[in-house]
Write a structure and sequence with these properties.
Elements lengths: L12 E5 L11 H9 L4 E8 L5 E3 L20 H4 L20 H7 L5 E6 L10 H12 L6 E5 L2 H10 L4 E5 L10 H8 L3 E5 L5 H9 L3 E5 L4 H10 L3 E4 L2 H10 L4
Parallel strand pairs: 1-2, 1-9, 2-4, 4-5, 5-6, 6-7, 7-8, 8-9
Antiparallel strand pairs: 2-3
Length: 258
Amino acid sequence: MTEGAPKAEKRVLLIGHRGFPSKAPENTLVSFRLALEVPVDMVELDVHLSKDRHIVVIHDATLERTTNGHGAVRDHTLAALKQLDAGSWFAHSFGEERIPELAEVFDALPEPTLVNVEIKSDAVRDGVDLIERLLGELIVRRHLETRVLVSSFHHGAVGRMKSLFPAIETGVLYAFPRDMGKKPAELARLAGAEAFICSRREASERIVKNAQDNGLKVIVYGLDTPEHINMALDLGTDGVVSNVPDVASEVLKARNLR
């Protein structure tokens, strides 16, 4: 169904999941730079807070999987985190890569590149808006309100973000089985979000229609094969999140969506 596809009526966002993690260590500056070369429209990344309240870019709450460090991210100062090797686990040639601060990533991404900042649930303190406030202040200070989408599986954090910084676009991540049976419009309304984000396993015509009929952007992740990418495009997704953005780019081009 990709051959002879009609001229696209909209542009579908190509989003590099943690940069370009099939080519470089995830959530590192080199990964983001390689994603820009595809080029992607947006990079997705994950954030935690260091012990001394710096926003750092790393997926896990602990250090073992993607660095040579040990323990929780929150128990280390920024200076200590910056000493860690964040690349050799992927390949020895990336041994100089370090955990970046979010501010560093913002500096490395030229206009008009967009950024999806996911606040990891482990970084959220219930009843305390610390990471939301620090993140929003950084975005506003850098005048990036129109280029950043803040999302989280922790919908309370999304709601606090929107309350504190209404000009910053936000998105709710669908969590299975917690959110099973709940409509995207309901989840987004409760958090004040403008975007609904789900995995390809949860994406369906019904879910996409409910979201878009209520003015939400739909972003689907876990799209790493042409088959899966085309499935999401057939559903009408507004954004494709992929670990192989080069592959996704070719699929989008074949369908005149890029």
